[in-house]
């Protein structure tokens, strides 16, 4: 069958670019290997409880933010949301620290009375960074599309307009925290919100939106479902359970795909899948393949996570107004994911509000344990999961539950009616995100901002999603679809940027 564009993957990047193109009359097909759309923004049910894949809330779901604006522009139904206003309980080396939503500064000053100046210094810098990042300036163009003059001008403007971001925001969090305070517990409290090696800006953002995020009333699955609705209303198509086996190349151009069942779909190709997988689908006879693989071979990938899904009977154990629980150590912010083990890794438990009809409370613990852990989780050749893999999963799950019980008590574990562990290999298998990464490329100081171009070395083969500009996060991934569609539609004389601005004028 012939299409203008065949999109591989119904993650939010693929659904975004498909919606933008379909809105302007392009014949678009989205192929998804999974039985549901959304990628990392999906939900599944166990024991009558709906679980999301670890994303608790999104600030960008608020009125006037990226996600509702995109949905409105596409003509999709809006996603009803509810505010998240829960508190954070942080266990640091066994000592409990409590942080109230909407009162972060007051809570930290109360928890760290001997470090008041340090608390104020850290939060003042975070506030300044976020103010600079949300200063009302229009969205930047991808840096690889700028001329040398534009890049120099952009850098000079950044130094002048975003001095705190340039001084602290794009530096490694460990380096910044060490320069701002000698209190290891305070550093760890800041780090506990997202215990991964990242630039300080990521933590400034996390704390700025704490208490300001929103959650879809029907769960995160409501977001991709709305995008699929608008896609179909605009004439686009989605095929589920359709796994790509090969990208077809003809006369040096991508001209379609072949799926594992032998079906062939013709058209220019847009991949929302990790470039590492995308490039493997290109025939070895294509000269550009080796060059494209070599260009990403040394790039560092953002660390993955294991996820422990738990259903809690609140009639037997109540978490009250808690939204998050962290179990961390003062050594954590100095470590990498590859150094963690189940008995030492930070544990960050997201307490979901749940959706109507759920009998129990859904909790998801995110644990940074590497893809390579214990011989790739004791998988066999080709990452095949066998008996040893399942045995190791059970062992890790038991270790994590024991550690949680040590902090929350036996009453908590006795009130769990269901629990199951997903490994980084699970995330990779369902989403085609390399190594189970949920943020694309590494965002340490060394790596931050090094985006792939959306155009590849093969004509009519494009990339979209967290591996290209503007990078990670649901809103960022959806924005990547906007940027790619804007570039593609130029050849038709469409100014998407102008149309989008006019729509919301």
Task: Describe how the helices and strands are arranged.
Blueprint lengths: L1 E7 L3 H12 L4 E4 L11 E4 L2 E4 L13 H9 L6 E3 L3 E6 L2 E5 L4 H8 L4 H18 L14 H14 L1 H7 L3 H8 L3 H8 L8 H10 L4 E3 L5 H12 L3 E3 L4 E7 L2 E7 L4 E8 L3 H6 L7 H9 L9 E7 L9 E7 L18 E5 L9 E7 L5 H6 L8 H22 L1 H5 L1 E7 L1 H8 L29 E3 L10 H16 L6 H8 L2
Parallel strand pairs: 1-2, 1-12, 2-9, 6-14, 12-18
Antiparallel strand pairs: 3-4, 5-8, 6-7, 10-11, 11-12, 13-16, 13-17, 14-15, 15-16
Helix and strand composition category: alpha/beta
CATH architecture of the largest domain: 3-Layer(bba) Sandwich
Question: Whole-number radius of gyration?
Answer: 23 Å
Distance between the termini: 39 Å
Under CATH, the homologous superfamily of the largest domain reads FAD/NAD(P)-binding domain
What is the number of beta strands? Answer: 18
User: What is the helix tally?
Assistant: 18
- Mean pLDDT, nearest integer? 93
CATH C-level name of the largest domain: Alpha Beta
Q: In this structure, how is the largest beta sheet organized?
A: 7 strands, mixed
**Strand-residue fraction?**
15-25%
User: Which percent range fits the helix content?
Assistant: 25-40%
């Amino acid at each position: 069958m012939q299409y203008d564009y065949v999109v591989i993957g119904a993650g939010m990047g693929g659904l975004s670019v498909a919606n933008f193109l379909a809105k302007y009359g392009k014949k678009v097909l989205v192929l998804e290997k999974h039985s549901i759309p959304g990628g990392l923004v999906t939900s599944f049910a166990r024991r009558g409880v709906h679980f999301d894949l670890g994303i608790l809330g999104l600030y960008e779901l608020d009125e006037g933010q990226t996600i509702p604006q995109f949905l409105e522009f596409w003509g999709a139904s809006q996603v009803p949301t509810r505010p998240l206003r829960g508190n954070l309980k942080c266990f640091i080396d066994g000592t409990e620290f409590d942080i109230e939503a909407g009162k972060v500064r007051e809570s930290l000053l109360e928890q760290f009375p001997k470090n008041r100046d340090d608390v104020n210094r850290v939060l003042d810098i975070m506030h300044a960074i976020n103010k600079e990042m949300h200063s009302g300036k229009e969205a930047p163009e991808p840096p690889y599309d700028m001329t040398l003059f534009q890049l120099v001008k952009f850098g000079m403007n950044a130094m002048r307009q975003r001095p705190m971001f340039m001084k602290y925001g794009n530096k490694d969090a460990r380096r910044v925290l060490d320069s701002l305070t000698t209190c290891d517990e305070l550093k760890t409290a800041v780090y506990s919100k997202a215990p991964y090696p990242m630039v300080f800006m990521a933590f400034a953002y996390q704390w700025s939106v704490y208490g300001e995020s929103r959650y879809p009333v029907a769960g995160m699955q409501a977001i991709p479902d709305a995008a699929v609705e608008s896609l179909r209303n605009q004439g686009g198509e989605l095929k589920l359970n359709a796994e790509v086996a090969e990208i077809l190349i003809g006369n040096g151009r991508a001209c379609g795909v072949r799926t594992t069942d032998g079906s062939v779909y013709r058209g220019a190709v847009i991949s929302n899948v990790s470039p590492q997988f995308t490039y493997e689908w290109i025939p070895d006879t294509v000269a550009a393949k080796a060059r494209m693989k070599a260009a990403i071979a040394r790039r560092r990938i953002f660390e993955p996570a294991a996820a422990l899904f738990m259903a809690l009977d609140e009639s037997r154990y109540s978490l009250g107004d808690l939204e998050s629980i962290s179990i961390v150590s003062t050594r954590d912010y100095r470590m990498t994911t590859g150094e963690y083990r189940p008995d030492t890794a930070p544990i960050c438990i997201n307490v979901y509000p749940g959706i109507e009809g759920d009998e129990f409370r859904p909790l998801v613990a995110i644990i940074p344990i590497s893809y390579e852990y214990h011989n790739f989780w004791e998988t066999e050749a080709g990452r095949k999961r066998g008996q040893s893999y399942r045995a190791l999963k059970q062992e890790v799950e038991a270790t994590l539950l024991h550690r949680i019980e040590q902090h929350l008590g036996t009453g908590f574990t006795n009130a769990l009616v269901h629990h199951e562990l997903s490994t980084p290999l699970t995330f990779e298998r369902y989403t085609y995100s390399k190594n189970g990464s949920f943020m694309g490329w590494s965002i340490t100081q060394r790596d931050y901002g090094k985006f792939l171009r959306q155009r590849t070395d093969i004509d009519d083969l494009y990339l979209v999603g967290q591996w290209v500009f503007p990078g990670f996060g649901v809103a960022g991934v959806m924005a990547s679809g906007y940027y790619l569609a804007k570039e593609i539609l130029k050849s038709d004389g469409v100014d998407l940027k102008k149309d989008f601005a006019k729509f919301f004028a």
